[in-house]
Write a structure and sequence with these properties.
mainly alpha; Cytochrome Bc1 Complex, Chain D, domain 2; 2 domains; about 120 residues; about 55% helix; binds heme C
Length: about 120
């Protein structure tokens, strides 16, 4: 009798819990960005993962192993950093260090990098 009651409670608990778990999973996945990336954003993502994630977080909204979070960076900032190891005039940088090297071979990928880093803001 007691055992029967416990198993009924377990079953009821499972019935109530399952939709909650499913919902949180679905919402969690949507946060990652349900909107597919455009061709330019995808190209930027590849360039980002290949050239930036040694220091910056694979998720550019988060702080990385060495570099700061850089989602939402302007094209001027990305260009100054990647081509000239500098900052746009008057820009208050997130870090005082100068550990990031210039990566001038990425000149042609700057618009794509910019599109990818700003694709998070719209979502
Ligand atoms: C060798 C490590 C390293 C690599 C590779 C690297 N960065 Fe950085 N990045 C840093 C560090 C560290 C900083 C903080 C300033 C400094 O120390 O130079 C920084 C700062 C920045 C900033 C300025 C953030 C702010 O608002 O102050 C931007 C934008 C940026 N990086 C973009 C990139 C992009 C885009 C790539 C890839 C194309 C990249 N970085 C590759 C280490 C790196």
């Amino acid at each position: 009798m007691i055992l029967k009651m416990i198993s009924w409670k377990l079953l009821l608990g499972a019935i109530f819990l399952l939709p909650v778990l499913l919902l949180t999973t679905i919402i969690g996945c949507q946060k990652e960005g349900s909107k597919p990336l455009s061709a330019l954003e995808s190209r930027g993502k590849s360039a980002y993962l290949a050239n930036c994630t040694a220091c910056h977080n694979p998720d550019p909204r988060l702080v990385g192993s060495i570099g700061p979070d850089i989602a939402g960076s302007s094209l001027e900032l990305i260009t100054a950093r990647v081509l000239h190891q500098s900052y746009p005039p008057g820009y208050k940088s997130k870090r005082k260090s100068s550990l990031m090297p210039a990566l001038p071979f990425l000149e042609r990928d700057l618009p794509a990098l910019h599109a990818y880093l700003n694709s998070f803001i719209k979502r």
